Amino acid sequence: MPIVSSSAYADGRKIGTIALEDIRQVLQTDGALIWVGLYEPSEEELRRVQKEFDLHDLAVEDALRAHQRPKIEDYGESLFVVLRTAHLHEGTIERGETLIFVGHNYVVTVRHGGALPYADVLTRCETKPQLLRRGPGFVLYALMDFVVDHYFPIVETLEDKLETLEEEIFGGTFDRATTGQIYGLKRDLVGIKRAVSPLIDVCNRLVRYDAELIQEDMRLYFRDIYDHVIRINETVDNVRDLLTTALEANLSLIAVRQNEVMKKLAAWAAILAIPTLIAGIYGMNFEMPELHWPFAYPGILAVMGVLCGLLYWWFDRAGWL
Length: 321
What we know:
The protein is of the alpha+beta class and about 325 residues long. The protein has helices at about 25, 45-55, 55-65, 120-125, 130, 135-150, 150-170, 175-205, 220-285, 295-320; strands at about 5-10, 15, 30-40, 70-75, 80-90, 90-100, 105-115. It is built from ten helices and seven strands.
């Protein structure tokens, strides 16, 4: 079985690790809380867990397919919450998904992809029995808080990358790779936006939730997550707007540089056109002028040089060279 953790609690304190076949018996105990963590289970394995906890079929199907939009579903006796996870690993963003089943006295988590293990969350909850005795609502809060907290360093890293790109763009060291970096950064922001934006509605519903699964005094905790999500979402929007502006500025500066190059090419073409024109007309004469005037060649060359010099001076003064 892909069970990475299976613990039973009573009055906020851990009783011990529990086997799958003993779960139903423990669930019938008053004041008991069971927390089971799964990692990429197969359909058969998840169906066994479903049988022990009486999980809803639709929620189990979503947990099997994964790749769900962050959401919260109320199935009467249980809640089903979908979270998209993200964290930094060696400078790259690792993404995953966590699906959470919350009942009156149990919590089942199903991790997919690059989702971080929740060993730290488990340890933190066990060190706060006064909160853990509040039941599954506190466990759900701890899991969501853990997921949301990992968005902050990602957003800060993306902001730092944006500042570096701005320095490259306005420092004149940009190239074609800069445009690719901007698009890559926008793609990362879109991924974070898809993970964070739906959480606003999820947290909003949990703050206003009036079922017994979430105690009323837990609303303040979910409101704290809601504030964090709002802040991250606003930061992502601001960075996206700045990236759009940076992309436009980058393209504008590239166009300006191209115009500068085109002006230089046009200026040199005009300068070279003078001797080309004179030499072309000069060579069309049947009787060469030097037959009658020994200074014809030096004179023509001097005229070419003077005219080219005047054009060069004029283009340089106009800023084309």
